[in-house]
């Protein structure tokens, strides 16, 4: 059996670009420190809107070639973050982007939103049992902001964490494994407010998003961990730039295809929802592996 690195972090995301926006700093930090960072992306983001006019032909209502293109963007982003283990759930193209909530694509054959949660989770169980992460990062039950693929990614990740530990569940998928700590992506409300105030003062984008558009914003008191570092944050920005069909980066700010400015959050925030925290009471953890002994 090949020896596993001492620290192993698994992140589960809905589309290529979500990992860089939400966790780029964190992924760069742990990759740089020699931890094994494994990214599982559930869909190829085929239903995304395309920002650069020169690539508009890739869109789903034209050539429908956005999925493979975004896989290339994801690979480039992972290079920026120093992450070598990135996979699509069930392999590339297994689950398709479901589009925004209420779109007719939600119910299409193969749409991730339509997938049976246990069946989709089984693909992740196999990865969990092979990689044996101590820490899992994913979204909250609302997927951060209600996108069907983000909600489904949450369900699949949480279900896989349970099933992977079950000795009776599909023994052929590997030896059972219990993940020590599970975190949901969060943004403290005060940080989001401060970021938007900075953005408005900078006047970089003519129009700005608002706090309701930022996934995972919660009261500051719910946030239990924060991960920062200027060098890692620079790599996050480079990774975000690699997702050029989806993200326009301007300095410390970015916009999605709706062209509404948002602050780039150099420091990333988490809420520990399973496992024991490693920080003294009332303090935030500065290491997702704090307290992990396995
Ligand atoms: Zn997404």
TrEMBL record:
One of its GO terms (molecular function) is N-acetylglucosaminylinositol deacetylase activity. Keywords: Hydrolase, Metal-binding, Zinc. Pfam families: PIG-L (PF02585). Its EC number is 3.5.1.103. InterPro entries: GlcNAc_PI_deacetylase-related (IPR003737), LmbE-like_dom_sf (IPR024078), Mycothiol_biosynthesis_MshB (IPR017810). It catalyses: 1D-myo-inositol 2-acetamido-2-deoxy-alpha-D-glucopyranoside + H2O = 1D-myo-inositol 2-amino-2-deoxy-alpha-D-glucopyranoside + acetate. Belongs to the MshB deacetylase family. This is 1D-myo-inositol 2-acetamido-2-deoxy-alpha-D-glucopyranoside deacetylase. It comes from Streptomyces lavendulocolor.
